[in-house]
């Protein structure tokens, strides 16, 4: 496995689910890991050896080198307060939810990309295959295209050239981005890069991600200062990250995630007021579960609304281009056929 490459979300979710089951059963952890050695992604045999040497799962995971920082910190904190099973379950749910979110983003982005590709291909076929055939027909019938029709056809060719150029640039961008990530051994989140084109949607997606990790670290009982750093690490660059960083700089050195959540009005008023009440009653970690769920739903609904706007626009564009080309070709053909009759 490549150095510094983290395990994927599904692998992390399954691993933590199994760890939680082992802890809940009261079985010795090393004995429990023996039953999991069939994993083809995690070297559980080595993990068990490291566990025997270090005596703690968090240290063995750290030696493995492929577990993300938030998982290491959560398990370490859980070992301190004796809540390993509970925290492992929360980690499993977190990574499962993160995997589902990424899959959802990919699914809603694939459809527009497919429509754009089909749009360009159809326009290209009409321009470079269909139009020349009709022009040959006009020539064989002794006719010629009017100047305005020639202008329309030239315009359609220009549109196709621009669309093809944009499609090629987009494909090259994806390839180059993936290659850079592979060479640097750094995971590449293409969906996040695409969402940068839609700032309001990206803000909601980042807010949902921040809420999920905040819920996790609060449940794990991680030191508040470390919890804030972990939560911020999960937020990609963008308006939300800038807002959180700016507010974080105004807090004193002893402040933590609780203080950041209370000082930053990143949630809608109702959720923010609920958090304030929860903070005063000592139930912030419980309320954050509801907040995380609500922000995820808002993000998904916002993205679906965007998709519902993009698809009709692409379909109408394709229909309009086809109608334009057919109109440009059929009208003069009808005139020629009429003169022959």
Number of strands: 0
Distance from N terminus to C terminus (CA atoms, Å) equals 75 Å
The radius of gyration computed from the alpha-carbon positions, rounded to a whole number of angstroms, is: 28 Å
Main sheet record: none
Give the mean pLDDT.
79
Give an account of the 3D structure:
The chain is mostly helical. About 80% of the residues lie in helices and about 0% in strands. It contains 14 helices and no strands. Helix 5 packs parallel to helix 9 and helix 6 runs antiparallel to helix 9. The protein is elongated. The model has no long low-confidence stretch (mean pLDDT about 80).
Could you write a compact summary of the structure shown?
With 341 residues, the chain is mainly α. It has helices spanning 9-25, 29-34, 44-54, 57-64, 69-81, 84-140, 147-183, 190-195, 199-220, 224-233, 239-250, 257-263, 269-281, 284-340.
């Amino acid at each position: 496995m490549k150095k510094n490459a983290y395990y994927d979300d599904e692998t992390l979710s399954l691993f933590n689910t199994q760890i939680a089951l082992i802890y809940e059963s009261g079985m010795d952890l090393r004995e429990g890991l023996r039953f999991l050695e069939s994993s083809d992604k995690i070297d559980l045999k080595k993990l068990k050896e490291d566990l025997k040497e270090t005596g703690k799962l968090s240290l063995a995971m750290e030696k493995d080198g492929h577990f993300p920082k938030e998982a290491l910190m959560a398990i370490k904190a859980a070992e301190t307060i004796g809540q390993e099973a509970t925290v492992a379950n929360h980690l499993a749910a977190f990574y499962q939810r993160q995997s589902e979110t990424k899959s959802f983003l990919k699914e809603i982005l694939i459809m527009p990309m497919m429509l754009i590709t089909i749009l360009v291909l159809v326009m290209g076929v009409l321009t470079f295959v269909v139009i020349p055939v009709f022009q040959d027909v006009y020539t064989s019938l002794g006719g010629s295209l009017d100047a305005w029709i020639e202008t329309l056809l030239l315009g359609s060719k220009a549109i196709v050239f621009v669309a093809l150029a944009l499609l090629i640039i987009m494909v090259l961008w994806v390839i180059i981005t993936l290659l850079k990530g592979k060479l640097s051994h750094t995971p590449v989140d293409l969906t996040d890069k695409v969402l940068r084109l839609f700032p309001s949607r990206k803000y909601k997606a980042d807010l949902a991600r921040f809420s999920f990790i905040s819920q996790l670290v609060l449940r794990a009982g991680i030191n508040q200062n470390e919890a804030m750093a972990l939560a911020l690490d999960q937020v990609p660059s963008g308006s939300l990250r800038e807002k959180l960083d700016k507010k974080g700089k105004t807090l004193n050195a002893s402040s933590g995630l609780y203080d950041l959540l209370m000082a930053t009005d990143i949630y809608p008023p109702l959720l923010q007021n609920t958090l304030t009440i929860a903070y005063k009653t000592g139930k912030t970690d419980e309320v954050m579960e509801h907040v995380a769920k609500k922000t995820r739903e808002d993000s998904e609904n916002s993205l679906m609304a965007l998709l519902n706007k993009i698809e009709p626009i692409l379909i109408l564009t394709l229909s309009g281009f086809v109608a334009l080309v057919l109109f440009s070709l059929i009208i003069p053909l009808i005139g020629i056929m009429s003169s022959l009759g």
